[in-house]
Write a structure and sequence with these properties.
single chain, mainly beta, Jelly Rolls
Length: about 260
Amino acid sequence: MHKKKVFRSLTLGLLLIGMLACEPVVNVHEEEICINFEEPVVEEFQNNQAYVSNNLVFNNSYSLSEYEWEGVTYSSETWYGFALSALCDSVTAGFGNQYSCSAGKAAGGRQFGLFYYSAYDADSSCFIQFEQEQEHVIKGMQITNSTYAYLSMRDGDAFAKKFEAGDFLRIIFKAYDAQGEFKAEKSFYLADFRDNKKVLLNRWEFVDLRELGKLNKLSIYFESSDTGMYGINTPTYVCIDDLIYIKVQELLSAS
């Protein structure tokens, strides 16, 4: 009688071990993807379409309209969001040079990305989003001022003031999940003249965004000390390059 109980217990134990051994094992595979904006190749800039690379979409809003004045037809374009650029004029001031980076060259290669923020459509003006509701970790990206913004803050212009003690321009990265729920945010200063600092970025600097965690959408907002009745006076541009995200894949395998 005692031997039968022992045998039955041994059989159940072996069966349980066999069941556990057949359970699938989840292997997490991480891969770093770098977006360097080298494709497609542009002559000067491209500001009229969204940019898509490695399942990541950089938004763009563009419109072209025509109007007639005294028998002459004129065209007018408006845009905000993302533009692709190869312009590196670091010395010419003004709106006509809005697609150049202040560093005088891309962080790597020939081309870089540029965001222009419109306060009139703040919630969807500038953002990066993974396709098909995917969620991954954005490790970070290289960032610098555009030439237009940099020279405006350094010298002042017809619309914006020369930066002095207490002034700042910062961008705020806001992370959202695939359901559109806000997760976290991080600020980065493109110019910081507070507390006896005198930071005015004209070189590429890597911004680490891993603390935002896995996200589906990364929105970019601007805040400036030079703000008036109609919003921010400072040109709201930022150049980006060599964006790196960590693609996380969960692979099932038998143990």
